[in-house]
Amino acid sequence: MDPLFDRINVRDLLSGHDLSDPSTPLSAPDLRLIISRLESHSLHIKSKVRSYLLSHREDFASLFSQCNDAVFKTNEIFDNVSGILSLISDRPIDVEIRKLVDEIGRTTKEASEKREMLGLLKIIVGIYERLEGARSAFSDGRLRFAAEEVKELKKALRIGDEEEGEPIVYGLLRKQWADLFDEMQDLFSKFMENAVRFEQDSRTIRVKYKLCVDKMDGIELHTVMEAMDVAGILDYSLAKAADLIIKHAITPAVSYGSPAMFAEDVNQGSEGISETVLKILPSQDCKIVDVDGDAIYARVIQVIKFIFKHICFENGSWIRSFGRLTWPRISDIIISKFLSKVVPEDASKLVDFQKIVKCTSEFEFSLKEMMFISASDGKDYRLSSFSENVEVHFAFRKKTEILGKARNLLLQCDFSVPQDYTSKGPLLKNDGMAINSSNQVVDLIFSSERCVVSKAASQLMELVHQTLQDVCLSSARVALEFYHAVRDAILLYEAVIPVKLERQLDGINQVAILMYNDCLFLSQEILGLAFEYRSDFPDSIKEHAVFADMAPRFHLMAEEILQRQIQIVIFNLREAIDGADGFQNTHQMQQFESAKFSIDQAVFILEKVHIIWEPLLRPSTYKRSMCMVLESVFSRITKDILLLDDLAAEETLQLQRLIHMMLDNLSSLLKSLISAFDSNAKIVRYAFKINHVGVGKWRTYELWFYNTRVERLHQSNIRGLNVEKRMHMAYRKCEGHDYSTKQSNGTIFYATGAFEGIYVN
After folding, report:
1. Around Cβ 635, how many Cβ atoms within 10 Å?
2. Which of 190, 208, 234 delimits the end of a domain?
3. Distance in angstroms (rounded) separating the CA atoms of residues 590 and 594
4. SS3 of residue 101 by DSSP
5. Using CA atoms in the order 55, 61, 64, 68, what is the torsion angle rounded to 10 degrees?
6. How far apart, in Å, are the Cα atoms of 732 and each of 80, 702, 716?
7. By its UniProt entry, which InterPro entries does this protein fall under (predicted)?
């Protein structure tokens, strides 16, 4: 049938016609031909259809029968639906169905929740019953079963993994489990206390195999160990036993010089071994010192083997747990009581220490075989690490000794001046040669002068030089530690002494001057260290060894101390001069006595400074510092006098009397300064003359200058000017000349600065 439904192309019916041009119109014959051929084709199609229907008659009959049945059933369904719709329209059954469905859903949900609650309740009851069963098992002595139950219940209750929103009962169960776990820990601790005991009278460690705790009798130690292992509390329960063994067995075994000996004893009972005993015996010969460590390590091995055999029952896991618990402390004891004490004190003995290194390695190998320490964890090989790094420990020990010695001598030094050294015996002769043989009198390497230093500074530099000599002879690692020890020892002075002498630095005393000399001495010595030792240092630290960076710190400290002393002296002098009330009305007895008392105070302070400074300070420093002090006090006195208005004749005489008195009292101090200025010194010297010209109290101010080169006295008169201008003009007239003091028809009043003398007539 498919060919019948193909498309018919009309142009195909005109086979003889030229159809190349679609736009060509068809003629009437063509159209008639087409109609004829279409009719023929239509008849052919009808014939085909008829023959097809006749050949498939039964099929079409069956198809029509089915269609008839379908129509009938459709009508029947229509009638049924119509009946249902009529019923629904009469009564709302859909509402009842919906209510029924909702009720069924609620009932199903409630039943499901009740089943879940019932399941949870069964779980809770089961956990509770297991907790009570575990507690009962502990009471009955079934320790392993109870420990297993506690371990499993920990997982069931998710201890340590709690979540929010859990039932409250879970928290209660966890609390019960925690209480049970604490009871279990306490019980096992009591078992171990009962199992391992130390008897002080007999000095014996006793291990019992049949234990009795809280009415539980006959519990075996092995059972207790198994239960503790299952519960995961082996470390906790063995802690006290470990402390006992370390204190009473390991520590005496490692004691260097007076070690203990050990003897084992096994007590047999009717049912087998009842207990074992480790007796701690004093050494028969306390004079024997184990320098190689063989005996010490053997005693420690003996104790650990006793633990391995009689407490851990040769169980590798148990002895490993015991080792984790005790080995860090045991190794610390061995290092502190043995290895650190046999570290060589001399670099030449480092070779002999290799025997100890070998013994230490064998000792740790034995512990590894017993599984007391781990075979893979490098942290457990602390003893080998310590002994193999002996050079570092040797250097560290020496460094500690050096710093300890430096600290002690700094703290113990009292900063006293040598007994044979007095103010009447100066440090240097006029020709610069020392007359004192004390080791506190030192040469300054960058100066031709000498000075007195404290024992602390002198001994500190001796220690520094000794250490640097060792640096030159040591290996690179040791030399580096010694180098840092030298720097730290020097810096200890800066850290310790200023704090120790803080109170003394606030007054006028010898301590401050000694500290100044110390800092000056240390700064120059530090600068010389590199020149003296660098060429002999090991090559690895030649380029890194630096000392010069510390020298400026001490030089600056020295100057700060000296300037602080000078300022303290100047402050005290000014306070003393303040009491003179500007030297006004000295012709009145009360005012004269007040001025005289102030002058006496100033003289006392200056003499005290003279007595302290001259013997201790270098001559150049003494002269410079004393001139600063004198400049301050005499400038103040000169200024007060120049600020006075007209002077009465009696007042002038009283001032002259005060000045004479002061100069007489300072004669020794002034003599000590005369040597400070040679004939060519470029120091301005001048005198101030006060003349009284009779009635009216008119005064003439005269400045006298003495030129040492031409030995001639110059005079300059200044009238009617204020003090500032007079002082300024006097200074300008002094510029460019070298002057020294000349005494003529009166007394020279020495000072420094703008006015170095007052000539009073």
Report:
1. 17
2. 190
3. 6
4. helix
5. 180
6. 143, 15, 12
7. Zw10/DSL1_C_sf (IPR046362), ZW10_C (IPR048343), ZW10_C_2 (IPR055148), Zw10_middle (IPR048344), Zw10_N (IPR009361)
What pLDDT is stored for residue 760 in this prediction? Answer: 32
Residue carrying structure tokens 């142009």: 11
Residue type, 340: S
Task: Quote the CA–CA distance of 432 and 434 in Å, as a whole number.
Answer: 6
**Neighbouring-strand partners of residue 350:** none
Residues 619 and 545 both lie in one domain = no
Would you say residue 348 has pLDDT above 60? yes
CATH number assigned to the domain comprising residue 466: 1.10.357
**Per the structure block, which two tokens stand in for 532?**
């003296």
Give the range among 337-341, 590-594, 605-609 with minimum mean pLDDT: 590-594
Task: Let me know if residue 180 belongs to a domain.
Answer: yes
| In contact, 1 and 55? CB cutoff 8 Å | no
Given a contact cutoff of 8 angstroms between Cβ atoms, the answer to whether 280 and 262 are in contact is: yes
* Residue 475, pLDDT score: 78
Using alpha carbons, list the distances in angstroms from residue 148 to 134, 188, 312: 9, 14, 20
Strand order across the 712-718 sheet: 686-692, 699-707, 712-718
Give the pLDDT confidence of 509-519 residue by residue, as tens digits: 889 999 999 99
Contact 742, 687 (CB under 8 A): yes
Q: For residue 311, is it within any domain?
A: no
Structure tokens at 108: 């199903």
- Is residue 377, in this structure, part of any structural domain at all? no
Out of 8-12, 216-220, 560-564, pick the least confident. Answer: 8-12
Number of domains in the chain: 4
Q: Which domain holds residue 12?
A: 2-16+28-55
Alpha-carbon distances of 755 from 35, 676, 678, 709, 727, rounded to whole Å: 157, 18, 19, 20, 8
Residues 584, 556, single domain; the answer is no
**Whether 25 contacts 17, CB under 8 Å:** no
Query: What's the mean pLDDT in 647-667?
Result: 77
Give the tokens for residue 584.
């006004």
pLDDT score of 73 more than 70: yes
pLDDT at 439: 74
* pLDDT on residue 447: 78
Give the C-alpha separation, 594 to 579, whole Å.
Answer: 7
The span from the CA of 246 to the CA of 225, in Å, is: 20
Contact 510, 612 (CB under 8 A): yes
